[in-house]
Amino acid sequence: MTVAGRSTGVPPAPDGTGSETASGTATPETTPGTATTDAAPGTATPETGSGTATTDAAPGTATPETGSGTATTDAAPGTATGAGNAGRPGARRWPAGGRRGWRWWLYTALVGAAGVWLAFSVAHLVLSGQWWLWLAVDAIPPLAFLVVPVTLAVGAAPCRRSRRPVALLAAAALLLGAERSGVNLRALAGGDGPAPPDAVRIFTWNTGYWDEGGQSESLYRVLRDADADVYLLQEYWYAETAGPTGATLDRLRAEFPDLHLAVVGELVTLSRFPILHRLPLEAPDLPPVVAGAGEQWRYKVLRTDLDLGAGRVLSTYNAHLPVQLSPDHSPFGADFYRIIREQHAQREPQWRALARDVPTNRHPVLVAGDLNTSPAMGDLAKLPDGLRDAGYASRSLYPATWSDTPGWPRWWRLDWALVSPEVRVHSYRFGGTTHGASDHRGQHLVLSIP
């Protein structure tokens, strides 16, 4: 029985109006503009009228709409009504209700991870080199800026729903972080060609607290094997015991009697060429407690002007910037962050000292040593303008100098060599084993000045 277009679901009154049907028989009403159906559970009732269709459907009943008018359905929970994706064969839907399938979780995980990494890349670009606390984050291996976005994009490639958003997010992160990944694409350039006969061989190395702990023979073995014209050495001091002593310096002179020597604090420069000028760079804005702690703490850059002959002078800057954090302290303790802040207060004046002196130097320049700064760190932007990384003369696609200690991965380049435009670099490579004397690899350069 139908009343005003609505199915009542009860037998008709015996007054002769409407119609009666046998059990299980569907009786459609054909009043113009109105289609009304009483459907038994499990019965499909397509609407073909041109007006308004109204249906009461039992649970589980499918009621697709094919008419041109408006369909209104009272459906029990779980009933498919033909809306949205139901009419498209093979369409994918998330599971109904609060339970999520594994595809939803995979999509969320991949897109979420790509979004988080992009947000981190943006934050790193903004904060590295600007906020002292970010020095802790700067310890991230630079190669992560290449590996993470590529891994996310490759991992999402088989997933139809997530591959596009993940690829877009990963590509944006890769563009932001590629320059800080440490990958040396300039290695394909091959440097400045063959070295001329008067080229200068330079060896720069963090010695690892010189020969403390009985490392004298290993130290001098590395220095002799380098066979350089100029040595720029760092950490001429002892960390745990008193020294070096006068006898230590006498041994150095005896090992290299034909080389000129300049020593200031922890910095040692040896040169086959005469030293015209020796200048430890002053950092007047150092914290007072550091400035008064001795030359090892006060001076972190030693400039020496070398007479190469024929009117040519090369200014070398032997540099060792303070390390930014201490691996001996847990990040869950207050000392970890106190040390970072103190080291930041020591590093910044040294950057400024370099930035003041190099631009006013009229000679060709080489800045080399342990800068305790990886390619991922924004601190590299504090180097004086006009210097270029000697990495273009290296054959290594991922040059790394630390750590040379067994059991530690060699993922960081902390040691650098940078030159002014007048200097030609014909070869740049990192040394082999240090025979246990240091956790840094040495840098070998061959350069010339026209």
Please tell me about this protein's structure.
With 450 residues, the protein is α+β, with helices and mostly antiparallel strands. It has three domains: 1-81, no CATH class; 102-180, no CATH class; 186-448, Deoxyribonuclease I, Chain A. Helices cover 24% and strands 21% of the residues. It contains eight helices and 17 strands. A six-stranded mixed β-sheet has the order 8-9-7-6-17-16, with no helix packed on it. Strand 12 (312-320), helix 8 and strand 13 form a beta-alpha-beta unit. Helix 1 (102-127) runs parallel beside helix 3 and helix 2 (144-156) packs antiparallel against helix 3. The termini are far apart. The model is unreliable at 1-87 (pLDDT under 50). Keywords: Endonuclease, Hydrolase, Membrane, Nuclease, Transmembrane, Transmembrane helix. GO terms for molecular function: endonuclease activity. Residues 16-95 have a biased composition (Low complexity). It holds the Pfam family Exo_endo_phos. It comes from Plantactinospora sonchi.
